[in-house]
Amino acid sequence: MNTSLAPRQSLMDRVSSALAGVRDWLDERGKPAWIIAMILGFVFAWPVGLAILGYMIWSKRMFSCRHRNSEFRSRQNFSGSTGNSAFDAYRDETLKRLEDEHTEFLAFLRKLREAKDKAEFDDFMNSRRAPTTDIV
Predict the structure, then answer these.
(1) CB 60 within 8 A of CB 34
(2) Does the global pTM surpass 0.70?
């Protein structure tokens, strides 16, 4: 009798993790590996090849290499030092300036919305106060 407390993975979980492993393995080898897998899929079982082609188009693996570079970009730490102190100082100053401008712009938008809301409310109140004269 198995008394382990670890929950068993369902069949879908195991298939998902296997497909993710295959996807990662093909991504490491690049677009030619995807094309070879697609061709082999068509040769041995055409629905598999069609599924791979559809996945390549849907995930944009056929037309660009963004899927490989996005992982690299997410690992980079842009807040760290580049080794060039002049560039680091410029970057920090520019980022601080952009944050300040962003904060000021959001405050401006808030004031603009408040002014618009106040003008609309004032117009509404003026129209309610005005005597209505019905022409008969």
Answers:
(1) no
(2) no
